[in-house]
Amino acid sequence: AADAFDRIGDGGAHVAVIGVGTRGNALVDAMIASRALPRAEYWALNADVATLERSSAPNRWRLPPQNTEVTAKSVFENATSAASAVLGLVGKASGETPRCVVVACAGGEASESGTAFVRAIADEKNSKAKKKFFGFKGGARAPEGAIMIAGVVEPFAFEGKRKDAACKEFLSACSSPGTCDIVLTVSQTELINNGESQMSVQDATSIADTSLLFSLLSSCDASRSNCWDSFRDGDARDLEAWTPQDDKNSLRTTVNKVMSKRGGGCGVAHAGRGVAEVPTYGSADEATASAARAAIGVAAQQSPFLAPGRFDTAYLVMCTVNYGGPTLGPLARETISNTLREITNAEQFIALPKADKRGTTEIEVTLACVTDAETAGLPAPESKIVPFVEADKPKVNAMLFVPGYTEENDAEPAKRKTQKLSPEDLKKFGFGDPKEMVEQLKATRAAVNGTSTTTSAALSTASAVVVAPSPAPVAAREESHVVFSFGENASASTPSTETKTRIRVPLPRDFNSQQVAVRISEPKLDSTGNVVGFRAVDAKGESSSEPEESSSKPERGGIFGWRPNKSQNKKEEKSNLSRRAAGMLEKDRVGADRTIMRMEFANMSVYEGECHAGKREGEGRQVFADGDCYEGKWHNGKPDGKGRLSYKNGGYFEGVFNAGTPNGRGTLSRTNGELFTGEFVDGEFVG
To answer: How many other CB atoms are there within 10 angstroms of residue 277's CB atom?
Structure first.
């Protein structure tokens, strides 16, 4: 019962964490490694199969590939299925749907698929919640069901307008009415501008990821902590004005109150962090009040993730205060509210999570300045409220704001001057004269390319370093092997210059394996029998679409309201019977009851062609996830017989397949124009 309204649960048992895209998958992997929420359900969503295979998330979902043309309907259906899976899996494990959903990604990667997923999961969880009448405020309605928090890393300015536009579109979708409760963003450009000088892109990326994860965890704590907001009757000093979170969630209510006057939604927040040591003088309440004020000042003035100008444009400031000591007293709580009032005119929401670091002597403060999506996308203005740090002081080390970092343990190493080595120094390390080494290397390269007239005796004294020429981009993979000769004039340890190159037919992923179909459709025919489209088939094998309109007119009832069912169109009936008879004769001729089907697989491959007993059988065409296409004979769900495999980047293989492997006569065409015609055994050209 005590955990009835806990949005997080013990160890994150009620949380679903989803990483969208490559950056989002990396953020999920980092959160799994940190064990901050060890019992949460982790998901990785990506269009790239290789990235999904490397992910540490136990649950993975393939998004529509971006290198092939995908219809909007397919994107929508994929997003809807993914949302149902995310919200359904936790329900199967704990008996209910997740109470908190966290989505992390890079804004530049959240293209059409990522935006569709966020909207789908919002619609799914809102539909499961109890419907309420929202009256004239329907356009600015608050989300329902599980708390939804989105964390977005904004692209660098040099990454281009396309990624910047994709990020703004994603932020706008997440902050729209009825979608997310909190949208946190970390601006990598502001991080470089506000952090220490000469920061590398790699350091900025690492710090931005760490900052976003810390802000997401702080927001999770804020959604279940004892809290106070500026809309209440009592001030922050009044302990009775502080209440625990309930099923309506005070954080959601406060955000909706603030943003409903400004177009609805939840807005977009920039987050910062500050830490201060609790002094040893004064009473416990006075000491924690002093430390809380100092931590807020550090977060507002020096945080590289939060520019001071964000406080001038904020509508709401969310403040999460973590302290491992005793519960904060009235003076400390009042000081927190008064300090926020000094640096911003925005509304306040203050949360005090339960202490999980007993014995610590620091107060940790996380500030999130909420504004509308359009204002958040603009550069931060110069602050007229927050006092700036003196200009003569160096910029703060951004790594100091990464949890667990200490400057003493990671001091910047001193830069070493580059030292040139003399020929004598090279000889000490076992190298010969540099000029002779260069001449030997040139001779070896020329011999490999076949343009040198150097004798074999001279080559035997040359350096053992062999630089192979870079191969031209081809559709097939080449494997070079050195051939050792053991004749009378050859030594057992001396390889000859003869090389044997293996030419193999590259096959798409899952080409010769059974695949899981996620959607099966049957062709829709016009009056002449031509295929004009496909319609989905349900589990019973019947069409799930609406039945076609009958071409015959409805019969009228007789004098007593009933008349025997007689056809009004004898010619049409005869034509249908003839067509059915012709179809049965064709089935008898081929020896199997084959039907034309369209099958969409979980790996985003699509097959259209003949099927039998739920497997690909006969003539068919399949487009794979990487864009390659096979068209030809199938047997038992695999390419078998004559067929043609065309590669997206050019080239093809046309010949005989056996159980998904090229075996027999065939022709392999490479992208550079070379042709290999002859026998292939297990996918390898043998001549």
So the answer is: 14
- Looking up tokens 């390419």, which residue turns up? 639
Rounded to whole angstroms, the Cα distance separating 224 from 352 reads: 9
How far, in Å, are 444, 447, 462, 468 from residue 436 at the CA level? 12, 17, 10, 20
Residue 446 is predicted with a pLDDT of: 60
For 195, the token pair is: 């952090």
DSSP annotation of 141: P
Cα-based torsion angle of the residue sequence 203, 205, 208, 210 in order, rounded to the nearest 10 degrees: -80
How many angstroms separate the CA atoms of 278 and 170, rounded? Answer: 40
Dihedrals phi, psi of 359, to nearest 5 degrees: 95, -5
> Six-digit token pair at 663?
């075996």
CA distances for 74 relative to 65, 112, 644, angstroms: 11, 11, 27
Handedness of CA 589, 592, 597, 602 (dihedral sign): negative
Tell me the CA distances in angstroms from 426 to 128, 360, 444, one per residue in order: 73, 55, 21
Closest CA to 319 of 405, 403, 251, 416: 251
Residue-wise pLDDT for 359-373, tens only, equals 578 899 999 999 998
For position 412, what pLDDT does the model report? 45
Residue 477: alpha-carbon gap to chain centroid: 30
Residue in the block written with tokens 């070379």: 674
Per the listing, tokens 């603009």 go with 378
Residues of the chain with confidence (pLDDT) below 50: 1-4, 90-94, 131-139, 389-395, 399-401, 411-421, 428-430, 448, 451-499, 538-569, 584-592
State the pLDDT at residue 414. Answer: 41
In contact, 519 and 526? CB cutoff 8 Å: no
